[in-house]
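Fold it.
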Amino acid sequence: MQLPKIKIGHLIPQFPIIQGGMAVRVSTAPLAAAVANAGGIGIIGATGMDPDELRMEIRQARQRSSGIIGVNIMFASRHFATLVRTALEEKIDVVFSGAGFSRDIFGWGREAGVPIVSIVSSGKLAAIAERHGAAAVVAEGTEAGGHLGTQRSICEILPEIRKRVKIPVIAAGGIVDGFGVARMLKLGADGVQMATRFVLSKECTVSEAFKEMYLRARSEDVILVESPVGMPGRALRNQFVEQLMQGSQPKPEKCSNCLKVCSGKYCIMDALENSRTGQVDKGLVFCGQNVAKIKDILPVKEIFRRILDEVASVE
């Protein structure tokens, strides 16, 4: 199989592979730049950063790559508008947004000449995004990691979304290799978004303990958890998750008002930051459903090479 070209607004990457923008400093400049250099679209996860930090990450990515660099910003973040405007001021190439739906963002994107991509989980929302001016949509199924907007499989929602819109459709959720990429393309996707696979890259800056949990993961270790954001999340079972299931998790000592809506049962930002920095038993380790299929840590360039070889081997 030959990989198609994808056009998102005026952007045409060498390969239709987008690295998922994982929040709270999992997707930072080194990873995004490496993916852009490999011919994909590298994404900085902006949620959890303040505007100055986001500016620094975008500028560092630019220093490392002349490829396509974007940001992912959760609508659920209280600082959503500020982060979007910061990225646009820094002349980011593309903005991805999910965990809720903003209508205002399309106007901001038009003013700045920056394409906006909505992350959706239904044909209805995809059509609304197209009507408001989305340059593309990410069709994200329940197999994805992090916060989930549906319990339906990507194999079910992708054809539905493909029928409803004319703009490019990017498949996401559980894609960890070239065979998964080929399967999504056969279902009608114009490209794919992959996050979990890129955590196990040399360029991802999360702690070694975080990566070790990925490497040791079994299929039965991947479970759904309740997030204070108001959406379920997919994560690896650990001590913190066990506490969540028993209702004995530590309560927040203070609140930074980072979310528009929060149950207050625990601090999602602290939980994600703990894992990123190596305190994996005190935090959430978000991951995709098929994390157990990944058994090695590779440079991004080698990950791309393997994906391309696997896609090429599919008839």
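The chain has twelve helices and eleven strands.
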